[in-house]
Amino acid sequence: MHPEVSVILPFFNAELSLQRAIDSVLQQSFTTFELLLINNNSTVKSEEIAKQAAQNDSHIVLLNEKTPGVANAMNCGLKNARGRFISRMDADDVAHPEKLQKQYNYLENNPSVDFVGSEVEYVPHIEENKGFRRFVDWVNSFHTPEEIKLKQFIEIPVINPTIFFRRQLFEKYGGCRDGNFPEDYEMQLRYLSHGAIMAKLPEKLLEWHDYSTRLTRTDKRYSTEAFFQTKAVYFKQWSKKNNPFHPNIWIWGAGRKTRQRSAFLQEHGLNIEGYIDIKKTKPDAIFYKELPQPGKLFIVSMVTNTGAGEKIREFLHQRNYCEGKDFILMG
């Protein structure tokens, strides 16, 4: 039977969790799928687990991608996928039995939506990381296409192993790009920049297991600076369409780190007219309480302190600034 859904699961030295991840896909209530296991130069032990699984279940296709990197492994899966829909899975994680069915139903019933994720259950295997926990709480807190559009420059809006999308997206706009940037975030921003509609189911359909070996912890391509560089590329395109004062912007945050990161925007042609700060002691910055009425400038908030973004949004809303028209959060 031709598969409706192609589940792409890249793996690299994942012998401790690979079987569990595979089993969670094979135990799905939705059955018209293929599971593409992409071996990306793993040890013999991981490869043997995958080979045995492929021998035991006809849903599974084992592929080898010799070029290192998860982007290359993902692209190997995309090139070989036969389904109308693409689902992503990580070797560390566990899919809820209803994940594929619920995401498939959602896209079938919502033809205007191209891409759907879900909430996740955070499962730490190391000492509790408050930053990761805050990120999960944040990413689980919004679901609509409108919210995703407005929050896309804060952080990755959909956790990658929850994604489920129409194959036309990568046929039109490409798959993963390999470089010194977070490939999953870049792909989502690229799709959004082309007008893709993304949503998220308000259910925890994946256990997101956090190990010390997770790439987001160990690879410099997932550093905060790499994220800001990626944001800068796509914010320029967004600004052209949405900022009435493009390329002119004001940066909320006048500290050293914020100025360094705002330089990424300048490199892509944005013109920083000035800075806004909560302290009156910054001689080259506007004191935040002295902002003009809406319609005079466009603000990009780049403050990353915990909770600062929500306070800035609340303050600007009180001043009748409209998010997406008068300001955007980027941190």
TrEMBL record:
GO molecular function terms listed in the Swiss-Prot or TrEMBL record: fucosyltransferase activity
Pfam families in UniProt: Glycos_transf_2
Residue ranges of domain Glycosyltransferase 2-like in the record: 6-174
Record keyword Transferase present: yes
Keywords annotated in UniProt: Transferase
PANTHER family, alphabetized: BIFUNCTIONAL GLYCOSYLTRANSFERASE PGTA, GLYCOSYLTRANSFERASE
Protein name, per record: Glycosyltransferase family 2 protein
UniProt organism field: Draconibacterium halophilum
